[in-house]
Design a protein that fits this description.
Length: about 180
């Protein structure tokens, strides 16, 4: 599947104009957080050959390979299109080989791949994952993606929402300003 309307390199992607963008990434999706690799940094120890610096976590080799292939497929489907620069909803149907993993980790891996492929300017622009699902299709694992612009009214309500802790930090009205209790 490809974009409903293919823009040129200087035009924004179709979703910037209110049209949904459809993509399909073939291959078994992989998450970032499962089976990560702990590697060291800094110079090697002369005695044992291990790294002597601070250790850090890298994504699994399977995720790195999947991301590389997913980015390649997405760039082919949207060749020459500029990145999305508006808030979008991402509906992703993850057809997996087997029923393992959780939805949030698959969504994070896909969001990072969409950003790396240049489909979205920043994965923060994916403000909702409405109707995303984990499904099973061992014969044909894939991800079917639909990026659609978010309704302005719904998004402005989302932007003005504050966590409870932030609401508690707001100044309270002075007792003189308060309405009398009846």
């Amino acid at each position: 599947m490809v974009v409903v309307q293919r823009p040129t390199a200087t035009e924004p992607v179709a979703a910037d104009r209110g049209v949904a963008v459809k993509l399909v990434v073939f291959g078994a999706p992989r998450t970032k957080k499962t089976s990560g690799r702990i590697v060291g940094s800094g110079p090697k120890c002369h005695a044992c050959g291990c790294r002597t610096g601070r250790p850090f976590l890298l994504p699994s080799e399977e995720n790195v390979a999947w991301t590389k292939e997913a980015v390649k497929q997405m760039r082919q489907q949207l060749a020459g299109a500029a990145a999305l620069m508006i808030p979008v909803n991402c509906r992703a149907l993850f057809y997996r080989e087997r029923n393992t993993g959780d939805l949030v980790n698959y969504e994070q891996a896909l969001a990072d791949a969409l950003e790396e492929a240049g489909i979205v300017e920043n994965d923060r622009l994916i403000v909702s994952w409405d109707n995303s699902r984990l499904l099973k299709d061992a014969a044909n694992p894939r991800i079917e993606i639909l990026l659609s612009p978010v309704d302005d009214a719904a998004y402005s309500a989302l932007r003005t929402w504050r966590p409870r802790a932030a609401q508690a930090a707001l100044p309270l009205p002075a007792p003189d300003d308060a309405a009398p209790i009846r």
